[in-house]
């Protein structure tokens, strides 16, 4: 997945879905920050639809409607088989994931990824999600296909790096995806294994098939459920704040304030200042400093999409999904921490 986004760059919570489908766009009831503030006309708030009886997704559509998560059209229909555009799907994603502040995109990102959305109702959504590295590859009004939806969902979960497990694989999961097409394999395979995107009974994935409104409801529900499963445990706001501060302060001091660029200097810095950082943590995140010449994928600013989990007695996990610049593209980075009181955190390795 990271390679896929690098190529693009170089070439150019819990049932809070608020899935407000509308005739031309998506209504923008706010949840989180920096939501699109334009509101399309022509929506119906009915909780029953004239065209969903007997539809394969009728139960999910009606459940979402009764919960106030989706809306239909003025004529009482839902039009479940109408295709979803890229900007509509992106706006729905924004309403499922945790809120985050984000930051202004750089000139390269604006020109490469955001120019098509300039002046549209979805521009703020595009700008907001770009900081998290959640970016479609087509125009806002383009129909969304299954492969593109899958890539966006993986990024929204902070799990696009799962694709690395399938680099070079010879396993054939789908009859219409060749293992020679590594970029497709690294998107479809992890999503399939995680239960985000299913295949078809005939053994195909159908990467170019368009996503319908009904399918979008199902996918956004899956995203919501996956967020709960992947990021377990009750992490308080104070714990989240302390975790973020612990990691961001250390990274900021090392990379920006002290400008340390050699691994031995980093180890010496930690020991000299008796910092709460283990060598395993250093190896996991700063091993690039061991090379004489290196390019490193820059660290997050820690105002991008962040997920927190409590994964054991006194052990926590923090995943940041972000855009790391032209070199790195869309990246997810996971940090592990330990704490005895939920106030002071030690930076540790994954297996410590």
TrEMBL record:
Q: What Pfam families would the database entry show?
A: SLH
Extract the InterPro entries matched here: Cell_Envelope_Struct_Comp (IPR051465), SLH_dom (IPR001119)
User: Per its UniProt record, what PANTHER family does this chain match?
Assistant: OUTER MEMBRANE PROTEIN ALPHA-RELATED, S-LAYER PROTEIN _ PEPTIDOGLYCAN ENDO-BETA-N-ACETYLGLUCOSAMINIDASE
What sequence ranges are listed for the domain SLH? 44-107, 170-234
Q: What is the protein's name according to its record?
A: S-layer protein
- Report the transmembrane regions from the record: none
């Amino acid at each position: 997945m990271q390679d896929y986004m690098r190529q693009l760059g170089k070439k150019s919570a819990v049932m809070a879905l608020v899935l407000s489908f509308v005739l031309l766009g998506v209504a923008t009831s706010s949840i989180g920050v920096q939501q699109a503030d334009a509101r399309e006309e022509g929506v119906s708030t009915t909780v029953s639809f004239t065209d969903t009886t007997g539809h394969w997704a009728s139960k999910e559509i009606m459940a979402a409607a009764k919960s106030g998560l989706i809306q239909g059209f003025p004529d009482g229909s839902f039009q479940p088989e109408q295709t979803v555009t890229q900007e509509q799907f992106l706006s729905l994603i924004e309403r499922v994931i945790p809120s985050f502040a984000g930051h202004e995109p750089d000139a390269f990102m604006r020109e490469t990824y955001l120019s098509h959305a300039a002046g549209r109702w979805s521009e703020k959504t595009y700008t907001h999600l770009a900081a998290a590295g959640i970016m479609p590859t087509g125009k806002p009004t383009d129909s969304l296909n299954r492969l593109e939806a899958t890539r966006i969902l993986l990024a929204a979960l902070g799990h696009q790096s799962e694709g690395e497990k399938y680099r070079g694989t010879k396993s054939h999961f789908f009859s219409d995806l060749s293992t020679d097409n590594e970029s497709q394999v690294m998107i479809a395979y992890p999503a399939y294994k995680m239960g985000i995107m299913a295949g078809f009974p005939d053994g195909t994935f159908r990467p170019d098939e368009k996503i319908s409104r009904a399918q979008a409801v199902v996918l956004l529900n899956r995203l919501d459920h996956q967020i709960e499963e992947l990021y377990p445990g009750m992490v308080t706001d104070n714990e989240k704040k302390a975790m973020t501060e612990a990691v961001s302060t250390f990274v900021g001091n090392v990379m920006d304030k002290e400008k340390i660029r050699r691994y031995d200097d980093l180890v010496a810095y930690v020991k000299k200042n008796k910092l709460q950082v283990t060598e395993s943590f250093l190896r996991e995140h700063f091993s690039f400093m061991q090379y004489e010449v290196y390019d490193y994928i820059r660290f997050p600013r820690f105002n991008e999409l962040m997920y927190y989990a409590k994964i054991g007695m006194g052990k926590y996990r923090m995943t940041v999904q972000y855009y790391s610049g032209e070199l790195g593209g869309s990246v997810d980075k996971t940090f592990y921490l330990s704490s005895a009181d939920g106030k002071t955190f030690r930076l540790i390795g994954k297996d410590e």
